[in-house]
Amino acid sequence: MPFARTTDRTGTVFSWLCGGALAVNLVLAIGLVGLIGWHGLGYFWQASVASFELRDGSALIGEIHTVEEVPEDSAQWAGEQRMRVKIGNRDLYRLDFRWVNESEIASIEYPDDLVVLERLEWGNFYGRMRELRRDGEVIASGPQVWTRFGEVYEEKAAEREAVEALERGPIGDVNYAIEGLRLQRRRLEMAGDSTAGRLADVDQRMAAATARYEALAEELFAMREELKDTTVVMEAANGQTREIVVGEVVRSLRPNAMGTLASLRLYGSRLWEFVSDAPRESNTEGGLFPAIFGTVMMVFLMSFAVAPFGVLAALYLREYATEGPMVRAVRIGVNNLAGVPSIVFGVFGLGFFVYSIGGTIDQLFYAEALPTPTFGTGGILWASLTLSLLTVPVVIVAAEEGLAAVPRIVREGSLALGATKFETIWRVVLPAAAPGILTGMILAMARAAGEVAPLMIVGMVKLAPTLPLDHHFPYVHLERKFMHLGFHVYDVGFQSPNVEAAQPLVFATALLLVGVVIAMNLVAIVVRNRVRRAYSTSVL
């Protein structure tokens, strides 16, 4: 049978080609994630701090980030090695990095007394501690400064946490109450309900809240002044000194004197800070918790919106609609919708959801807040609905495929036993098709988590002062703007005031985005597999 042998050989070749293509794709994906992980995870490791003596008599202190050959277009230094050194001290030098050629270096040392101060502003400071002052008086100098600094830092760190807790807690609550009372008074005025009793009650509560705010503001001012009473005098490599408020120091290190265990603890604390704290310094320092929260919440809101519309559309097309020109036109429209650029969905969301629906909601229910919009501006709700439109074709196609995979005999058996068509679909067909539907949801979630362009129009911002979820009624604030990991990558990588210094953070954020997407997909896959096991025997 020559034909059979030829067919077998052809099938084997195609099997090998398919397997080879799959292997190449896996290698590329793993390599890409590995590259991002290598650069991203390295961002949190503390390198040793070097002290450079240059041949021109000057000095540098910093971390060596890159060693490479001098580009050929630089004829004077061609063939030499050069180092990119993170010198920090932005308030002194106005830049974070400096290139140093090999021939410029007289010596390199790694003294144990070199100190790195991570600050709330102006980035890292590299140098040596000279004095510790309280209320202008020197309380330690020379080698004693480092010994006393730890105790003073713990005290000021606790005071800074108390200041932040006061700002986020009581002061934030009073501000929220004052704004609510202002809107309530405005509502009474607009309704013509100007009876002295009700307005007087609102004014009385407003006065009490204002007095409470003023008392808290005075307390906050006093705490901030107390936070500034202790400073440390740092000496940079060029001999310049800078007096730094201890309360503005995030972390103090002596990297050259740290052992492996201390370095690992520092690495873990930076990782935790990255996923649990808010950003600072134009998003180039600190953590990314608001962006993580916004990304996850937006994806779940999108999932809740897209699931019913996608599944109901697929049910109608597969189970109820009669094949004809109209149904074919709808299928063509769904397929074409999947190819529309995402920015077009953003423009549609801005016009339809934000301006039309949101503006109408403001006119009907939030007129007292106008001209400041409540729902008539970008927010996490409109962003989620916009992405649900973007991903609904994926869900429709996957749900249709899942419904088509249910054998016809299962439907006929249910109908033969006396069930109605609706009961058959609800109790037999949908459970059997659930794995396919969940596959479509997984694909939709993965795509939505990585979209950036439409979100820039309908609610995503560089920095959101408050989360869409808090302890104020109604607890979930769908009108609020939010942060997103995808936009954070773009913002830090291309809009940062210091792109060179923020480059490692871009990889770290990209790795975190990949991790969040993988985590959400794994949860959905586990749910899908459990549904498949539950219904594979009972239904099919």
What count of domains describes the coordinates? 3
Q: Tell me the distance between the termini.
A: 39 Å
User: What structural class is derived from the secondary structure elements?
Assistant: alpha+beta
CATH architecture field of the largest domain: Orthogonal Bundle
- The amount of helix comes to 55-70%
Principal-axis shape? flat
Q: Quick one: CATH class of the largest domain? A: Mainly Alpha
Question: Keywords, please?
Answer:
six-stranded antiparallel β-sheet; alpha+beta; 13 helices; 540 residues; MetI-like fold; SH3 type barrels; flat; 3 domains; five-stranded antiparallel β-sheet
In short:
The chain has 540 residues and is α+β, with helices and mostly antiparallel strands. It has 13 helices and 13 strands.
Give a description of the structure.
Strands 6, 7, 8, 9, 10 and 11 form a six-stranded antiparallel sheet that branches. The chain has a five-stranded antiparallel sheet with strand order 4-3-2-1-5, with no helix packed on it. A two-stranded antiparallel ribbon has the order 12-13. It is of the alpha+beta class and 540 residues long. It has helices at 2-41, 90-93, 144-191, 196-227, 260-276, 289-320, 325-337, 342-365, 380-404, 408-416, 421-450, 485-494, 499-538, and strands at 49-54, 59-69, 81-86, 97-101, 105-109, 115-119, 124-134, 137-141, 230-235, 241-245, 249-253, 279-280, 285-286. β12 and β13 (285-286) form a beta hairpin. Helix content is 60%, strand content 14%. The two termini are 39 Å apart. It folds into three domains: 49-126, Roll (SH3 type barrels), CATH 2.30.30; 134-259, no CATH class; 290-538, MetI-like (MetI-like fold, Orthogonal Bundle). α6 packs antiparallel against α11 and α8 (342-365) packs across α9.
